[in-house]
Amino acid sequence: MSAVPPFIPRVTSTAKVLVIGGTGRVGGSVVRALREMVPQEPPLAGMQPIIVVGGRDRGAFLQTRERLMEQDLAAMMTEGREFSGEGLFGSRGGGDEGGGGFVEGERVQLGGNRPTLKFFEVDATDPSSVAHAIESTSCDLVVHTAGPFQRSTRAAVLEGLLRSGHKCGYVDVCDDYSAAMMAKQMHEEAVSKGVTAILSGGIWPGVSNLMALEAAELLGGVDKVESTEFSFFTAGSGGAGATLISATFLILAEKALAYEKGEAVHYPAGSGIRSVDFGESIGSRKVYRINLLETESCHHVLGVPNTSTYFATAPEFWNDLLRLTTLLPSDILGNRELMYSFSDFSMPVIRAVDAFVGAANAMRVDARDKNGRHAVCLYGHSDLEVCVGEAVASFAIELLLQRITGGPPAVPPGVWLPEETCKNDKALRERIVRRSARTAYQYDSYVVKEGERDGEREERNRFESISRGIMAGR
């Protein structure tokens, strides 16, 4: 292994984040969360963060900017603050800066320090374009949200970061294990260049992986866990855009992987229907097998011999339609361009259904040990788009703290999956989950009382009461 360069913090009053894919639904939610959460983080308080939205389409950036302005105005009205209009998106046209596609955004002044928002033209599939964007922006952190990650042929954004020679943090929302493994191949190069990269740092995967660690802790540690099951629910599309919808179709084109007694077993996507109780608000739902990253990462990183992943949406006929799509030939269902076009074409219908069912998101992790003890970890949020942004920002803030405030890094240089970052660092895990649960309506973890199915709790994790207190005070 190459020697690790000495850690040299960039002590400064400004943090700069490049969000590649920031004009999409996921990327836009990350931009919004960073704008809200970075100035609220005590060690970063008083900073004036600069967020650079990286994408191919300046028009999409302007739409994203307008949407953020509307959200800010709504927040001001809710909080009863006076709006003068002064300084709000001051020069709406913007102007080119630095020659390389850099478009100056406008500072949003809504009380306290809010980030300057800028745009930089970048092709997320081209490492040279990414390297140019990183060099030009001199960012402290790169957040990669430009999916879908399924059927990717290279980890172009991380490759571009390492090629640039610029030392900064990296977080992505990769939800495909094969794509994550391509990025993991650059681990040694990242170590040698002093770059810390967190893969799959979103809500699921991301926080879901840390929930598996929390459930394992309740059973006495990961070495005691015999099986871990992940179950996910999203009402409608959860407010997702065409890119995320198309990723769902790409996942349905794959067999659903499970590990049973340490051996890989592949099931048809949409099979294995069973009922799962997601707790408050959502209640019991019928879920089915789907191929998700957590199956692989929980098995390989934590060494759990039996792992599986399940999913459901609402209304119920969406589940029926999704299971029917698995009957399509794989060369059709697994075609990235075709599925994106179909998803984009279907958006009016999807949005109409969303208006009736909402955008709630829920996660449940069930862990069992060899003696049958059963630990459960539950998460629930009223809006998938919001909770995705807050989850990514929660991982991102850790790397910003490393980069800016000094001190030994909590996550060392290298390329890491979520479980790897926190497997031996409970305090780090709790910080990330605590931030991620800041607006959740539910976060709970407990051991099921012996002789009960799930209704009574034998013991609770100490963190549950902490997260409840935070949410109660929001």
Automatic annotation (TrEMBL):
<dbReference type="InterPro" id="IPR036291">
    <property type="entry name" value="NAD(P)-bd_dom_sf"/>
</dbReference>
<protein>
    <recommendedName>
        <fullName>Saccharopine dehydrogenase NADP binding domain-containing protein</fullName>
    </recommendedName>
</protein>
